[in-house]
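Support reply, case 0932

Customer input (verbatim):
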Amino acid sequence: MLLLLGACDKDDSSKTPLEQLPALTSVGANTAGCLVNGEALLPKGAGTNKLFCQYNDQNDFSVAISEKINDQIRTVNVASLNQKLEVNKVYQLKECGDDSKYGEYIIIYPDFNHVDYGTNSTITGELKITNHNIDKATISGTFWFDAVNKSGDKIQVREGRFDMEY
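Our regenerated output:
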């Protein structure tokens, strides 16, 4: 009997990093996640700011996923500035600036020091909006990018997905 009960326990640690990510949905489920250097990054432990999405005036978009582990906060942010996004169009993530689309990864340490990684003109990625319902204020999509810090260290963000209300 004890063996049978143990077989029914759900063990999330046995899931692969990809299996830990939320499903690709388009219903405004308020879910998001991605792989950073092959490890799942999910919105957890970072207070109320662990998952954030905005699409101001159908012009400025951003989605941020934050995870706090051992007093260290890791955040992935994807943004598009000054452009209406179209469904099924692929946008290049490059340098941050006016009228730009970019990706960034930030590690914040307990002493508030941080390391910032970002896309640029040669280290890039992609954002694709897969669903947008203006009436319900929901937006869904996928993303991936490579990013570099000021020391030249690179990270890879893969399998990014979001299904958010804004």
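We compared this against your earlier run and they match. Two observations from our side: The chain has two helices and eleven strands. Confidence is low (pLDDT under 50) at residues 1-9. Please reopen the case if you see a mismatch on your end.
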